Amino acid sequence: MDEEYLEGEEGQQNFAFQDDNEVSSEIVDKFEEFFRVVYEKELAEYIATHPDARSIVIDFAKLEAYDYELADALLDNPDKYLDAMEYALGRIEVPGLENRKLRVRVTNIPDERKLLVRNITADYIGKMVAAEGIVRQTTMVLPKLKVAKWSCRKCGRTYDIVQDGQKLKKPPVCVCGSRDFELLPDQSIWVDFQRIQIQEPIEFLRGGEQARFIDIYLEGDLTNKVKPGDRVNVVGILRLVTPDGRRTVYGKYIDALWVEPTQKEFEELEPTPEEIEQIKELAKDPEIYEKLKKSIAPTIYGHDDIKEAVALQLFGGVKKELPDGTHIRGNIHILLMGDPGTGKSQILRHAAKIAPKSIYVAGKTASGAGLTATAEKDEMGEGGWVIKAGALVLASGGVAAVDEFDKIDQKDRAALHEAMEQQTISVAKAGIVTTFKADTAILAAANPKRGRFDPYQNPIEQINIEPTILSRFDLMFIVKEKLDEDRDRKIAEHILKTHLAGEKRMAYEKGTDEQLTAEEVEEAEKHVKPPIDIELLRKYIAYARVHVVPELTKEAMDKIVDFYVNLRKLGKQQNTVPTTARQLEALIRLAEASARVRLADKITVEDADRAIRLAQASMEEVLKDPETGAIDFDVLTTGETKSKREKAKIVLNIVRAKCIDTDAVSVDEVIEEAVNSYNMDREEVREILEKLKKEGDLFEPRHGLIAPT
Q1: What is the dihedral of CA 465, 467, 473, 476, to 10 degrees?
Q2: Three-state DSSP class for 673?
Q3: Beta-bridge mates of residue 706
Q4: 387 contacts 137 by C-beta, under 8 angstroms
Q5: Which sequence spans correspond to the domains of the chain?
Q6: Which pLDDT tens digit goes with each residue over 374-410?
Q7: CATH level 2 (architecture), domain 268-481
């Protein structure tokens, strides 16, 4: 660019830049005609209803329909042609537009310019592109200098310098020969500036692909429109970040012309008409639920109830918004608790692979901030803090598979309370207070404290997870190692056939077995091949979640109500709390998901029966008191069964009774009393005493003695 001085007020001069590639008057005339023909009426209405508007949005499709050559030129040379559009806009005589300069923003550019972040390459530098992604982080809104007014410290002359790059520009030299200048902030022109970062939508990733991300620069009225976790469409110009020093590798960012949040989650996976026909045929298949079970982790033998529950989780229930603004979640949360080596991780990974949108994380490597959101200093050195979205926010609308859930730090797990029930994440960090959407289903897996489950203890007592978190899971399943010769033989045969299928496939592809045929490979893979192709299943799930909103029939409602009321009656008889309203809502979500599998608009008794059967299977495994055989939901709120709590009361009363006339009592004396009078186990009494000491009900004044607090 050439530089020249322009005369200003007396004793002052304006310093400006003159572009070598000036916009021709012919282009300006074309844009002026376009505005008059296509947008004049719309522009007048917009200005009348938005008197404080600083920009106007132009639909690219309208420009393309009016003059496709002009539209193509705008895509390839946006800086030049946007200047022409804004100059032409200034010529239009519209009431309220006098002496105002509106920024032109462009939306709805052609599909060939709507790119994944990974496809935004050097070919598009300086050109208009569009990208869709999830906002990963945002900065504070800061002032950015657009036109700097400099004053010569020697003679007082002032110069206006347009700041069109990333580095601050000063006048090279004053007419008086001085190079010493002072910025006049109050006389300069500033604009709001914000930087956000978006990453590729998770549903576009396959296997172990890592999501790419790119910075987006927002100015003026585009700032403060989005927050981390939002899914957005961005239209802008691809620009380069000048590297420090003499490096030849440049960074890149999109200088945004338009940004808008979008609620699309699965529409991108909209199947073709042929695939829709396949999906509808599958939905009519009476064996569809069996096929779904066999399509989830087919290399893992058995676990039919778990696989069926995971299938329903993928389809999900219906999210409701009530007139008072209350939201009822539709996502189904499932927890698998089991011995090591029972296939829990395989089920999680396969479910994450099938889900149209998913994230897989492992407990040992996941922090509360990594799961929810974190605040950190701005990497770009703009002086503020940024909020980065975590896994549950990024997977919003999909499934988060969390392996080794029990290994997550207890303080970090506490951050999940709100996310699991309210489906939001509230953040108050570094002076930033905000709320993110976390409309995410959680599929978690955990191991018992001592490696394997003790069959004589309630499973909940053996899991290192707080009862308040456990109560938010709709279904919980125990995956135990069982010694059964027939079952062991079937598992062994299944594993061996799985390995054989893999060996034959590798041998056929590498050509190491010349006699092996494709038919033999296909025959070997038959028992581990899912009945429904994974890509079709992903689209099946996405189609059902977008297009199917089933409603409860009276018969299904009656069935669920009867089950719930009968459970409550049973609890009253056994003096326990067998179920709560939270579990009732879980039944409804499962029934809705069951109906979605069939693409049905009504929830039938069959769906209610399926939900009840899975709930009963979950309760029988997880909530049954081994001593009484009763279903005890209190274990989810207290962490122990009613019988354990009763025994703890007995032991505490023994200590208190024996300490009426003395300060402390012998531990052995308490144990003997509990064993002889109440038929309790010695080791169990010792455990209860230790627990009461930890909880502060008892203390040990001297070794071997115990006393109430």
Answers
A1: 70
A2: helix
A3: 665
A4: yes
A5: 2-108, 113-264, 268-481, 548-637, 641-708
A6: 776 665 545 566 777 777 887 787 888 888 888 887 7
A7: 3-Layer(aba) Sandwich (3.40)
Q: How many angstroms separate the Cα of 46 from the Cα of each of 83, 97, 495?
A: 21, 10, 67
DSSP per-residue letters across 263-286: --SSGGGPPPHHHHHHHHHHHH-T
- Number of other CB atoms surrounding residue 206 within 10 Å: 8
Kind of pairing between the strands at 114-115 and 399-403: unpaired
Q: How far apart are alpha carbons 124 and 120 in whole angstroms?
A: 7
Q: Domain 2-108 carries which CATH code? A: 3.30.1640.10
Residue-wise pLDDT for 17-74, tens only, equals: 334 345 578 888 888 888 888 887 888 888 777 777 888 888 888 888 888 888 889 9
CATH code: domain 113-264 is: 2.40.50.140
- Residue 159, pLDDT above cutoff 60: yes
Q: Which residues pair with 4 in a beta bridge?
A: 16
Could you please report the per-residue DSSP string of 221-273?
Answer: GGTTS--TT-EEEEEEEEEEEPPSTT-S--EEEEEEEEEEE---SSGGGPPPH
> Within 511-552, where are the H helices?
518-525, 534-547
CB 619 within 8 A of CB 567: no
Output the six-digit token pair for 338.
Answer: 């089991």
As a whole number of angstroms, the distance between CA 571 and CA 577 comes to 5
Confidence of residue 466 (pLDDT cuts 50, 70, 90): confident
Tell me what percent of the residues of the chain surpass a pLDDT of 70: 79
- Tell whether the model's pLDDT for residue 345 goes beyond 60: yes
Q: What is the mean pLDDT of the chain?
A: 79
DSSP for 565-582 reads: HHHHHHHHHHTS----HH
Beta bridge partners of 469: none
Residue 662 pLDDT = 82
Distance, CA of 614 to CA of 505 (rounded, Å): 37
**Structure letter (DSSP) for residue 202:** G
The tokens for 149 are 């007014």
Query: Six-digit token pair at 549?
Result: 């909103």
User: CATH: 2.40.50, 3.90.1150, 1.10.287, 1.10.8. Which one for 548-637?
Assistant: 1.10.8
The secondary structure element, H or E, covering residue 672 is: helix 667-678
d(CA 486, CA 492): 10
User: What is the predicted pLDDT for the residue at 256?
Assistant: 92
**What tokens were used for 261?**
């949040």
Q: How far apart are CA 442 and CA 342, in angstroms?
A: 20
As a whole number of angstroms, the distance between CA 329 and CA 318 comes to: 7
Beta-carbon neighbour count of residue 657 at 10 Å? 13
Long-range contacts of 431-435 (CB under 8 A, 24+ apart): 431/385, 432/375, 432/385, 432/387, 434/227, 434/387
> Looking at residues 223-244, what average pLDDT do you find?
83
Domain 641-708 architecture? Orthogonal Bundle (1.10)
Task: Give the burial class of 182: count Cβ atoms within 10 A of its Cβ; 0-12 exposed, 13-18 middle, 19 or more buried.
Answer: exposed
Task: For the beta carbon of residue 526, count every other beta carbon within 10 angstroms.
Answer: 10
CA distances from 189 to 98, 149, 161, 192, 246 (A): 20, 8, 10, 11, 31
Which amino acid is it at 99?
A: N
The neighbouring-strand residues paired with 576 are none
> Who's near 427: CB < 8 A, 6+ residues apart?
372, 373, 375, 387, 433, 434, 435, 436
